[in-house]
Amino acid sequence: MNKKGKTVRKEAIALGYDQTIHDAPKVIAKGQGKIAENIIKKAKENNIPIQEDRNLVELLGELNINESIPEELFSAVAEVFAFIYRTDREAGRRKK
């Protein structure tokens, strides 16, 4: 529930980026409610880091699946990928 007592519907956006193929990250999955829950569940099952940013999800939610991230969102999305990089690096240290 949000501050006004209304139930907030869960949303999720999955991003993918292969710099050898694409100039920018792409939306590879998105959804609300049960679909969002499934995206999050799959990410957790595959040890994919999850970052919560309601404002960024709202902006990315306007894009279609397989659509590249527009330049005006590069900075925000770069922060997400930096978070993933740090999380992966820290997880690698713990496994050693």
Helix-strand blueprint:
Layout: E1 11-16, E2 26-32, H1 34-45, H2 54-60, H3 74-95
Structural overview:
With 96 residues, this protein is α+β, with helices and mostly antiparallel strands. The chain has one domain: 3-Layer(aba) Sandwich (name from scop). Helix content is 43%, strand content 14%. It is built from three helices and two strands. It is globular.
Largest sheet: 2 strands, antiparallel
Q: Percent of residues in helical segments?
A: 40-55%
Number of helices: 3
Which radius of gyration do the C-alpha atoms yield?
14 Å
Count of the domains: 1
- Classified in CATH, the superfamily is secretion proteins EscU
Number of strands: 2
Structural class call reads alpha+beta
Strand content: 5-15%
* Global outline: globular
Q: What is the CATH C level class, in words?
A: Alpha Beta
Known CATH architecture: 3-Layer(aba) Sandwich
Protein name: Flagellar biosynthesis protein
InterPro entries: T3SS_substrate_exporter (IPR006135), T3SS_substrate_exporter_C (IPR029025)
GO biological process, one term: protein secretion
Keywords: Cell projection, Cilium, Flagellum
Keywords:
T3SS_substrate_exporter_C; 2 strands; cell projection; 96 residues; alpha+beta; name from scop; single chain; T3SS_substrate_exporter; cilium
Task: Put the structure in a nutshell.
The chain has helices at 34-45, 54-60, 74-95; strands spanning 11-16, 26-32. The protein is of the alpha+beta class and 96 residues long.
